[in-house]
What does this fold into?
Amino acid sequence: MSESPYPGLYRGLIERYRKRLPVAPDTRIISLTEGDTPLIPLENVARAIGHGVQIFAKFEGLNPTGSFKDRGMTMAVTQAVAEGTRAIICASTGNTSASAAAYAARAGIRCFVLIPEGKIALGKLAQAMIQGSVVIQIKGNFDDGMRIVKDMADAAPVAIVNSINPYRLQGQKTAAFEIVDALGRAPDYHCIPVGNAGNISAYWTGFSEYAGIKPKTAACAYCKDTCAFPCPAVTDSRPVMVGYQAAGSAPFMAGHPVAEPETVATAIRIGNPQSWDLAWAAVRESGGWFDALTDEEILKAQRLLAETEGVFCEPASAISVAGLLRDIERGKIREGSLITCTLTGHGLKDPDTAIKQSQGAVLEVPADSTAVRKAILDHL
Ligand code: F0G
It folds into this structure.
């Protein structure tokens, strides 16, 4: 581990959790100081719903590129560079491409991103473009892009940095570590959006590792056990894992891949999740469940978080709170529970959707004090 002349300076999740990650001591770390995101108490939402629950949002939108992808990307790009890779590639609904582009820029390597035509939020596209990646727009969806990227593994000298890359999940498991470290215990439930299903698998790996339990799945064999199980346990319990999908893109509810996924939450517009078995294992081993929510329910939760908590996340992220609130109402969550929800990406990623659903929120008045005073008094 490299020594820092500034001992109080946070240096990213690899340095923080190095002992639990497959990184050699002399490896050059590619980092944007990701991780260490806040666990924000959602007191207003919890009070309104009742049932004595405590809800915390793990706001991953506050990572350097605005989504949880940075956790996995610091690991994947660090490993790619250590292996001498000159170029990386990913298929993406937007956030993976933004993150891959940033870490590639930092490492000084090439980055190719495949994105679905017309179905990527504006902020994410801007990130991939300005950070110098080669943006390849395909006339197809994320699942088409994923299929093509997998073909490229043998067809071109590029390393894949989608979550089928085992190092991605290793990095992403650190979010679970941070939650337990912050709360001093594992939550009773953890609610999370599910698209390609890497993140739910990574959280389960992290929660399991911190409980000193090797998941029954192959998740930990990914790093070929270089993370040295049995790891010392930090806590004695694991949360129930609850994964939410958009109703128009819900292969886990259907029990099979979905051919034409559709949802306003474009980040999770995915019909053929790559971490299918790992995600099922996380839900089954934890006694959890999958469920699906309509676009209307997703947007309502996005608004609720923004209006009552001041937390602006993107639509795909809000699904974890939308699902939780519905499950509390349906009595599926025990009274008095401690619950964490991952808010995967920042609301600024998708300004179009935010503005569209806030129509009428801007008052237009003449440029004089009387008119402004009237507007204030009308809206107090
Ligand atoms: N939330 C956001 C904001 C995402 O960008 C994604 C995935 C997910 C949730 C779902 O996570 O795939 O691990 O189940 N976005 C990917 C991308 C697919 O290309 O940016 P998952």
Summary: The first strand starts at residue 39 and ends at 41. Residues 67, 69, 92-96, 163, 193-199, 267-268, 314, 316-317, 344-345 surround F0G (CB under 6 Å). Strands lie at 39-41, 54-59, 87-91, 110-116, 134-138, 159-160, 189-193, 240-246, 289-293, 338-343. DSSP finds 15 helices and ten strands in the chain.
